[in-house]
Amino acid sequence: MLALHENFMTDDKGNRVGVLLDWQTYQKILDDLEELGEIRAFDAVLEEDDEIIPFEQAIVEIEQQ
């Protein structure tokens, strides 16, 4: 698990308006978000009821469009 050590930026009233992260933490968050996107895309494909066709056939069909 990623341990966050964030520094909050506040406005004149003390409301949090931003956060500063070290570069390594920022990169880790981006990597995790990318992986999460891939997982969600994979899950979405699994939920589809589409016909599964061979890769070669898919290429032919795409090229015909």
**Helicity range:** 40-55%
Number of domain modules: 1
The averaged pLDDT comes out at: 91
Beta-strand content bin? 5-15%
Shape: elongated
Give me the Rg, rounded.
21 Å
Run of helices and strands = EEHH
**Gap between N and C termini:** 46 Å
Biggest beta sheet summary = 2 strands, antiparallel
Number of strands: 2
Major sheet strand order: 1-2
How large is the count of helical segments?
2
Q: Which segments are poorly predicted (pLDDT under 50) over 5 or more consecutive residues?
A: none
What descriptors fit this protein?
65 residues; alpha+beta; two-stranded antiparallel ribbon; 2 strands; 54% helix; elongated
Summarize the structure in words.
- This protein is an alpha+beta fold.
- Helix content is 54%, strand content 14%.
- The chain has 2 helices and 2 strands; from the N terminus they run E-E-H-H.
- The chain has a two-stranded antiparallel sheet.
- The longest helix is centred in the middle third of the chain and has 25 residues, at 23-47.
- The protein is elongated and about 60 Å long.
Brief sketch in words of this structure:
The protein has 65 residues and is an alpha+beta fold. 54% of the residues lie in helices and 14% in strands.
List the helices and strands and how they pair.
Elements: E1 7-10, E2 16-20, H1 23-47, H2 55-64
Antiparallel strand pairs: 1-2
